[in-house]
Amino acid sequence: MIRHCTENWLSSPSAFYPDNPMSDITDTFIAPPCPEQIDILYQDEHLLLINKPAGLLSLSGKNPQNLDSVHYRLVQLFPGCTLVHRLDFGTSGLLLVARNKAINAALCRQFSERTVEKGYSALLCGHLNENEGIIDAAITKDPALFPRMTICAVRGKPARSHYQVTERFYYETEDGLSLPVTRVALTPETGRTHQLRIHCQYLGHPILGCDLYGGKLLPGTGNIPRLMLHAGELDFVHPVSGEPVNARSPCPF
User: Fold this and answer.
1) Are 56 and 15 in contact (CB under 8 A)?
2) DSSP string for residues in 42-105
3) 197: part of which helix (H) or strand (E)?
4) Domain count of the chain?
5) Where would I find the Pseudouridine synthase RsuA/RluA-like domain in this sequence (predicted)?
6) Which are the contacts of 98, defined by CB distance < 8 A and separation ≥ 6?
7) Burial status of residue 36 (CB atoms within 10 A of its CB: 0-12, 13-18, 19 or more)
8) What 8-state DSSP symbol labels residue 239?
9) Is 19 contained in some domain?
């Protein structure tokens, strides 16, 4: 399901997909149906910018039951389109889509050269003591705990994230509980698989609703409806016009 959005949200008209940690291991995850639509925020003959709903795969899985995905839906309307980067299943927000191979290559180059700036909003479990900081911890796959990643200074690939506290408050659950949470702005300097999720766990404050990295283990967190992580900012240069593009998507939580 695709929905076109005509709001004026543009201020002006892992480089490749994040590394697949377990391509040789069978994934038994079956994605539940996602009734939410994809919002197409901007499109031209070269690219699309879309708002991905939480609970939708970026790419279809090998299991035929995981056919529905951002790419599967978009390619019906835009044959030959490819995702320039991905978001985790539970993450919502901005995704950049190329409409041909040349544009994909040009955009991937910007990601690989780290000229693309990405910003996320998240709710973390508990109240952080520090108002800002940097998480510098290498990440690698954990074959024993698929699909989890793990922190490993020896085997891991360098990974660095910045965080900035914007609010501390209490999240009211459907069960009537008040959970202490911290709203943070997250800026990944690198683009490793599950980077922000595992870095927040490493910080001691997992993202609320994160089933892989401790965001559903604390009392009252078991029924959180989604992963509280949203890709709300994406800044890059249009590969044809050369104009800077500053995309923004309001946080839904």
Assistant:
1) no
2) EE-SSEEEEEEPTT--SS--SSGGG---HHHHHHHHSTT-EESS---TT-EEEEEEESSHHHHH
3) helix 195-203
4) 1
5) 46-201
6) 46, 47, 81, 82, 83, 84, 104, 107
7) middle
8) T
9) no
Residue 215 lies in a domain: yes
Which residue reads 């800044």 in tokens? 235
List the catalytic residues: 88
Q: CA 34 to CA 54: how far, in whole Å? A: 8
Written as one letter, the residue type at 16 is F
The label of the residue with tokens 């459907």 reads: 174
Check whether 143 has a pLDDT greater than 50. Answer: yes
- CATH number for 177: 3.30.2350.10
Token digits for 130?
Answer: 């520090």
So what's the pLDDT on residue 13?
A: 34
**pLDDT per position as a tens digit, 147-178:** 899 999 999 999 999 999 999 999 999 888 99
Could you give the percent of the chain with pLDDT greater than 70? 90
Per the CB < 8 A criterion, the answer to whether 175 and 135 are in contact is no
Mean pLDDT for 43-47 is 98
The two three-digit tokens of residue 175, written as one number: 């069960």
Listed in sequence order, the residues at least 6 apart from 176 whose beta carbon sits closer than 8 Å to its beta carbon are none
Q: Which of 67, 109, 42, 19 is nearest to 249 (CA)?
A: 42
